[in-house]
Give the backbone structure.
Amino acid sequence: MPNSYSAVGSISTVTASVTGGGSELNDGDRSVPAMSAGEVTRRLLSYVRPHAGSFALSFVAAAVSVTLQLYVPILIGQGIDLIVGAGRVDFAALTPLVLRLGLVVIGASVTQWLQGYCINRLSYETVRDLRVQASDKISRMPISFIDAHPHGDLISRVVNDVDLVGDGLLQGFTQLFTGVFTIVGTLVFMLTISVPMAIVVVLVTPLSIFGAGVIAKVSNKSFSAQQRILGQLTGHIEEYVGNQRLVSAFAFGPRAQEGFDAINGELYTAGERAQFLSSLSNPGTRFINNVIYAVVGVIGCACVITGWPAPLTVGGVQVFLSYANQYTKPFNEVTSVITQIQTAYASARRVFALLDAEEEEPDAPDALVLAAPQGAVALEHVDFSYVPDRKLLQDICVDAAPGRRFALVGPTGCGKTTLINLLLRFYDVDAGAVELDGTDIRELTRASLRHSFGMVLQDSWLFEGTIAENIAYGRSDATREQIVDAARRAHADGFIDTLPQGYDTVIAEDGGSFSQGQRQLLCIARVMLTDPAILLLDEATSSIDTRTELQVQAAFDELMRGRTSFVVAHRLSTIVHADCILVMRDGRIVERGTHEQLLAAGGFYAELYNSQFASPAAC
Amino acid sequence: MPPGVRERLGRMIELLRRFAGRYRWYFVIGPACKLLEVFFDLLTPMVIARMIDEGVGSHNLGIVLKYGVLLLVMAVVGLCFTLVCQKMAALASQGMGTDIRHDLYARVNQFAYAELDRFGTPSLITRITNDVNQVQLAVALGVRQLIRWPFLAVGSVVAALLIDVRLGMAVLVSTPLIGIVFWLVMARCIPYFKNLQAKLDTIGLIQREGLSGVRVIRAFVREDHERERFHRAAAEQADIAIAVGRLSSTLNPVTFLVMNLAICAILWQGGVEVNVGELTQGEVMAFVNYMTQTLLSIVYVANLVVVFTKASASAARINEVLHAEPSIEDDAAAPSPQAANRETSALRFDHACFSFGPCAANAVDDISLELPVGGTLGVIGGTGSGKSTLVSLVPRLYDTTSGSVEVLGRNVRAWALDDLRHAVGLVPQQASLVSGSIRENLRWRNADADDQELWAALDTAQASEFVRRLPQGLDAPVEAGGKNFSGGQRQRLTIARALVGSPRIVILDDSASALDLKTDAALRRALAGMSVTRIVVSQRVSSVRSADQILVMRRGKAVGLGTHDELLRACTVYQEICASQGVDDRAGHPALEEDARRARPDADEGGEN
């Protein structure tokens, strides 16, 4: 989003560049000890508590299901032992056995389904609760916090991290449980059938795990090499395709292609290696499984024939063959689940760090509600800085009678937009006081304070919704007539009427196809509808379409009529028509008066005026 | 196959047809080797059955050992063949991926602005990286597994039927049954997955809006409303996720159920047949093992379908780029232009029109003008008035939809593109550099430019002073985008870049905005000294007022053409622009015009040469 929220952008940069500008999210900061794994688990369990029943049920179901699933090969083995040969089939035993097998299979399926159902529901509901809590938390954080943290990072905590917690910690845990339970269960079942055979299987399985481990290690290494080169390639594409207009205007294509092909060739070598090595893991484990299969088969048959070292039936061999096949699988699963759980812990820490951040101080219980604000605003010896050791505003005194119009003028970074932050209590003053109708604004509820103000910022914020919804944002009970009337008074009706869907046109995120000027007109209409006592306006610096600009100017004039107004001014006419110009420099008000008075004084304003309007882009 | 899958696979096949040719032997040898492994896998239960029936049946340890060794040999040989297959898969997939990336990038390089506008940079990047990766993965999996799992599934059924037809029926019936279960569940889940992603995007959108608009939200005291909006979206997403979960969690239990009930049937029917001597105990075991293998195969086949569906969506996006014809045809064989003399016009627009699409309004609407060699054209107008689009017509970054553009007396369509673009030095609005050194960046128009030429260009662009101060001079590193230079420095470097390789026409597209007035004036004076034809686009009256001709644009149309003084008298839009920038004698601030002149002492000399 180039060029957006430049008004607040400057503030964000200042605060973000210095640690301590707002509550810290401690994950990136090594000086703050990270939350221990135990603590993370405990907190996570507190989210599960409302669903404790289904959580417990899912574990019980998993245990039952695994046990029954492991029991199936044994029953099959017993069944095979009953059908030794022609005329030697024990139907009296086979019939109930097949029935039992059927019941066990049905039981295993139902419990497996139950387990999946419970854990799914549980994890998505927990994800939802956690996500809502994280988002609510952000809405209760002070603006300083939101300015100080990259929005992408906060969004990713609410969206991605919460998902990873759900996947890893909840589903991962049950998978881990199932995996470990399967390993233990298999071991127990094998031991009950034949101790020596169980030992054989246990002794040969590490071979498979070891093999898989070696392959994973080698292929991970080559994968990161591939990722690195892929990163280079992406960088090249981002740079050159991002500048493709330049590339074609300069006929630079063939040379860009040379650079691309060089990296592409490297990627081939690295990619081929990584692809090959990683594709070894399946055949590798399969090979080892086949070896185990052969070994178990031979030793099993030897047991059946010789009865040494322990007696075994043919069905027993079948049981061991199927166990040998499944026994190694949970090991590999457990390894991958553990990685997933580790990622999830990191994500959980990031989410909890957000939830633990210090919130905005709530309104005092005895805070006043301003019923009918008159619009008298006063700043009394206000000091303020975003960063403790970098003073910004110093000793600001303004006394604004209702209905007066103030223009704030001064070079970039002199603190003009900061005043808006203080008036709306987005930030609190360090010293001095801001008063509204004679009351310190800290004694008012934030809601009643903010209802007294209307604000139009340089960055026209619109949300995804219709034009009517956007205009009615400050007054959801407004009728269509009131909305249309507000748009008319804001000179926005002209362009809205030309749209096929008129007021029901849906605005895409970030204002979509509307021009900067049109977006600003909508924002003005929005304020027009709420009819506030005081106005805070931040004029756009960059010149927009001249015609729209004239409309915006007219809309601003209409809006300011009869209201106390503070305008961060860039336009000459706004400044000239102000009742009082406040000239700011380095955080102080250095001059104040009307345009004529200040020009006559020949001070900083006169200097600024001359340089600025000779070159509109200088401020 | 789930709905739409067949049509989607078609796109994958189209891509394969185009790129797989070079690797066709890999596609033959790989799966052939794999087949052998599958064959051994199918043989294993039979060998075990023999081991039981012959070895255990006759109490002969030697026979058991013999079959054990056979199993080991099969494992080793199978592994060797598989390794060959994996290697083929890696070579074929990565080779194809590399070729696709090359072709994609080459195609993007041929794109005109129109195609770039249509696709957008982020989307092109995704296509060249992510989408190619998906296809690579699918190709590798295809070589490795496309043969393996279906063959194993079918093979198991066939093997079972070979042993005993009646028992084989249990396998024959249950296999498609499991397939149908998969088909039903997946066909229902796939639309949900799309919906789920959309809901997650909504959650991200609401959160992003909540952060970017935090001041407005709080100023209007609408925190509760936003919270509620988020809660609703989160709840909707959770509901869908739970619904999908409910569906997909039936998959494993149901297949387990079907497979094992089939085993029940095998045991029962097997018992009957063994009893009458039609079957052996070992063969019943083999049946059980084939049944297990079939299930496993079907799980993998389902996985393959998912991978291929994803890859086909990627293949479609790749094909779209490969099929997009560059809208600007290059007559590369066109003869080189003669050196134009002072009398010919440098630039002529003749009723030039351009629109971004058949339904869009003209972005450039009926512009006609003529600029002599060495002259200066100023173009002024608000944002979106079509200034940049107009000058993009000169180096043929867009083609006119009607009317014509002539450069140095020849229609731009009759130029070889390289020649034309070499004749025009463009300084774009966005001052962007690429990573590398200053020298590399300056040599964009001429790879062989010597230092003397580079320094001359830097001198004209008012950049030599700061470049000389850099410890490494021309070899100083430039970060991506030129981020390690200030806006003004970057702008001057892009101006210098356009001047290397002696262009005949220089276009400055609002590219002096970050320069202070003194540097701006010095730059204009230096350019005037070069006697090169110039087009200066700006929103600032001060930048164009000294031009020989000023074109005033509004909504793509020329609303004025003339000198500053002429326009100030006759053109209302120009008057409005001047008024809004405080450059108007009649606005009641006589001091202003005076001040403007004082601040730009060189303005007047800058205009004429």
In short: Chain B has 23 helices and twelve strands. Chain B touches chain A through 155 residues (CB under 8 Å).
